Amino acid sequence: MRKKIVAGNWKMNKNLTETKNLLADLKVKFEHMPNGEIIVAPTSVNLQYTSEALKGSGIKVAAQNMHQAESGAFTGEISADMLKSIGVNIVILGHSERRAYFGENDTLLAGKVQTALKNDMTIIFCFGEELEDRKSDTHFTVVENQLKNALFTLEASAWKQIVLAYEPVWAIGTGETASPEQAQEMHAFIRTTIKNKFNAAIAEEVSILYGGSVKPANAQEIFAKPDVDGGLIGGASLDAASFAAIGNAM
Known about the structure:
The protein has helices at residues 16-29, 47-53, 80-85, 96-102, 106-118, 131-135, 139-151, 180-197, 200-205, 216-223, 240-247, and strands at 5-9, 37-41, 60-63, 90-93, 122-127, 162-166, 208-210, 230-233. By secondary structure, it is α/β, with parallel strands linked by helices. Helices cover 42% and strands 14% of the residues. The chain has an 8-stranded parallel beta sheet.
């Protein structure tokens, strides 16, 4: 049975004091863990503190990004080994903001995926269409190509370390949200695409999260869809009460 997951991507928010306060609130809110995994992804400078603060809580920690090289002259970057050395074994790759603002393409992301797998990390792999793709009715093709280009050269065994996160770019930070029916339609398409390339067992086991303006008010309806296995949460994960409400909607 595939995992239910709610992951909070804090992006470039929360200094150390704010991080401490939010983590303290989350440990109280999630004292009784919901029927699924809870993950938080703080900014990189607060990863070590977060990893240590959450030990024994049941809440897992993810990095928001990592470099594809093992080490070297890459100023400002973080390697998989560095993350693992502070107890961080999960990484978000391919977020739409990394693609849009930092020029990360499918080829680069394929390299990051391979490095993360080599280091035995779990990957939350993000992908999704722009508004113009949906308006031109090419959203299925765009999503299929993003999956194929970055993930379809993997061995079948690697999918045990992959979590997918579908994020329609037009619904991130805009207040717009794909309807539960739109989310289900795309998640079902993703699962069928994986089944056609690999097999039904992999397609049924992989968790597919929805990311795009999920809030306490709409989380339960979205998560109730059969192919939606939780959410990658942005703004709502910065507030303990909102994030807990979403986590408990699984």
